[in-house]
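>> received
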Amino acid sequence: VNKRSMASLARAGSDSRPLDRVVRHCYKSNERPRRSPRRKKKSSSRREDLLFTRRQALFSLATLSSFGVTDSKARASTSISSNAAAEFYAKWRYAEPRDILPFIRDRSERGDPSGVLLAFDEFFSMYPTYHLGREKAEILTGIVRNTKPERCVEIGTFLGYSAIHTASNFVSPEARLVCVEFEPRHAEVARECVEWAGLSSQVEVLVGEGGKRVMDVKAMVGGAADLIFLDHCKPCYLPDLIAMEEAGLVAKGTVVVADNVVYPGAPDY
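>> returned
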């Protein structure tokens, strides 16, 4: 499976199709893992096979894209890089949200937010997924430093990356951040990452839909928020913003920051 994926990706540089379509082709064509007709395969589940194929395809694509070449010599160097990636994947699995926690604790010290964020970046460079990323995180933290908010809200926390960025840049020791995360498993991991970063006294993570927890959030921050960061479902941006305005969580002077308004886009918002 991996050899076929690598071969397809090696041709990506001269392929006129968008690279994401090439990746989809790679692991869609390998969707069914091989099975022995004589005995049942026990080493891994079908889900694990698909996850591994996707990981290898994404890593190979990233490597090829960074080199921008597709000759045989480049493909040989890519194979070497893939061996290093295979070692990483063998040691650090990511089949569920909690799988990131051992890596965070191995790569960072308790109470060091910067180290935790670097560990996040390293992990997500190998497992591409939706998170804020360093470039946009710098924009967010710049806003935090300039506005010096004390009552902050985040809707859509995922595993706590952006929450740690925000709280670690608070100017006032009295500043607080209330986060709302829809997926309970993500919220649990976010709490543990925040605690490991030493920020649990300033960050609270709630579970639920942003629009339905507005009054709870307002009660916890003590009135109108100084800063609100939206990074949840894009069609929810506008109705949730209206709900927060009607509840008085958004008032004159509140700074509202929203991610992904261009891609995938939130035109109503």
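>> The chain has a mean pLDDT of 80.
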